[in-house]
């Protein structure tokens, strides 16, 4: 793959996109385990269709062409196991947003419904631990 220029994504863009993804699928939606392995592994997209919460959010932020170009497919050598790797490699995103997106993905990959994963994102983004 040729080098592609990074795209800037703000906290506001990610928050809006994650909220829209949760609204579209429902707060109780649980990302399914892989049917072949039985493992709940996050795949960002399959072709041009978003699969996981982070993939769905990115599909709402990017153009369809950017989504396919920048976001790894379900299979292939570019698969990133954590959102932070993908975001640092291909996008310009503040580190607090990366941490928050990783928190949402970890919750989803652990079997949490998307509404709870969104809550983990917002908790991490607002730094709830620093106020306790």
Describe this structure in words.
The chain has one domain. About 5% of the residues have low confidence. The radius of gyration is 14 Å and the shape is globular. The N and C termini lie far apart (about 45 Å). Helix 4 packs antiparallel against helix 5. The protein is built from six helices and four strands, in the order E-H-E-E-H-H-H-E-H-H. The chain has about 130 residues and is mainly α.
Chain oligomer state: single chain
Residue windows where pLDDT falls under 50 for at least 5 positions: 76-80
Helix content estimate: 40-55%
H/I helix tally: 6
Strand order of the largest sheet: 1-4
Coarse structural class: mainly alpha
Distance between the termini: 46 Å
Helix and strand element order: EHEEHHHEHH
Task: Write down how many β-strands occur, each being a DSSP E stretch of 2 or more residues.
Answer: 4
């Amino acid at each position: 793959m040729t080098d592609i220029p990074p795209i800037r994504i703000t906290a506001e863009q990610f928050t809006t996109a994650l909220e829209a993804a949760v609204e579209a699928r429902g707060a109780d939606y649980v990302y399914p385990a892989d049917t072949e392995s039985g493992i709940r592994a996050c795949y960002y997209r399959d072709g041009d269709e978003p699969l996981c919460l982070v993939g769905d959010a990115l599909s709402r932020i990017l153009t369809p062409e950017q989504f396919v170009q920048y976001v790894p497919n379900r299979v292939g050598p570019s698969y990133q196991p954590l959102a932070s790797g993908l975001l640092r490699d291909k996008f310009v995103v503040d580190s607090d947003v990366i941490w928050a997106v990783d928190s949402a993905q970890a919750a989803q990959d652990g079997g949490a419904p998307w509404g709870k994963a969104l809550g983990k994102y917002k908790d991490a983004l607002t730094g709830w631990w620093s106020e306790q």
